[in-house]
Design goal:
With 209 residues, this protein is mainly β. The protein has a single domain, classed as Metallo-beta-lactamase, Chain A. It has helices spanning 117-123, 141-151, 175-180, and strands at 5-11, 14-19, 22-26, 42-44, 46-48, 62-64, 74-81, 92-100, 103-107, 128-132, 155-159, 184-186, 191-194, 201-204. The protein has a seven-stranded mixed sheet with strand order 7-8-9-10-11-14-12, covered by helices on one side. A five-stranded mixed sheet has the order 5-3-2-1-13, with no helix packed on it. It is globular, with a radius of gyration of 16 Å. The protein starts with a strand and ends in a 5-residue tail after the last strand. The mean pLDDT is 93.
Length: 209
């Protein structure tokens, strides 16, 4: 049995996650939506989207594998808002929590609000948290770091931020979030392989195009 959880960052909030023969893509974006990012052309057993905006729900970018492996993960959906005004600005957002094979990991989508204790309890103890940090459309570095400190996931992967070469101008880079978190590991790849022995860290993955 393959015990590695392979997590590949495809840019913005999009990830491809593999466990053995199973694969999923979360929050695929439409071509041309995000400055500096290459078009997506992926294959996976399943695809998920946190909400209905085209920089997160472009299912056409993912070819579903015919007869693909069955998911080893149970999925919980936790409803949140895409803004700090009850969803009145940008609508609702779904946090996906996956659990199976001894792993529990969450993709926070375009979370735009702080989370109350009830929802934090529903999310629970995580091996991996993929969380937005850039602000404006989502929570910013400060709110993201507060959530991380409460949940204490083993691996934190920041997403939905900008750099000199990609991202929306109105959102910030990852630097402020990294200053607020500890154990930063910068990877020279867009892939991290998580095992049950992986050390606690904030994993900064490199966009590969």
């Amino acid at each position: 049995m393959d015990e590695k959880l392979r997590i590949k960052w495809l840019g913005h909030s999009c990830f491809k996650i593999e466990y053995g023969e199973y694969s999923m893509v979360i929050d695929p974006y439409k071509e041309g939506m995000i400055p500096g990012l290459s078009p997506l052309h992926e294959e996976a057993c399943e695809v998920f989207a946190s909400h209905g905006h085209n920089d997160h729900n472009w299912f056409q970018a993912v070819k579903i594998i015919d007869g693909g492996a069955k998911s080893p993960f149970n999925v919980s959906k936790i409803i949140s808002t895409h803004d700090d005004d009850g969803g009145r600005k940008r609508g609702m957002n779904t946090i996906h929590v996956f659990e199976g094979e001894g792993y529990r990991f969450a993709h926070f989508g375009d979370l735009g609000e702080s989370l109350d204790d009830k929802r934090l309890g529903e999310i629970g103890q995580l091996d991996v948290a993929m969380i937005p940090v850039g602000g404006y459309y989502t929570i910013d570095a400060s709110v993201a770091s507060e959530i991380v400190k409460k949940l204490m996931p083993k691996v934190v992967i920041p997403m939905h931020y900008s750099s000199e070469s990609f991202g929306f101008d109105v959102i910030k880079g990852v630097g402020e979030f990294l200053e607020l978190t500890g154990s930063v590991v910068e990877y020279d790849d867009n892939l991290i392989e998580v095992t049950h022995d992986t050390k606690r860290q904030t994993a900064v993955l490199k966009y590969k195009g």
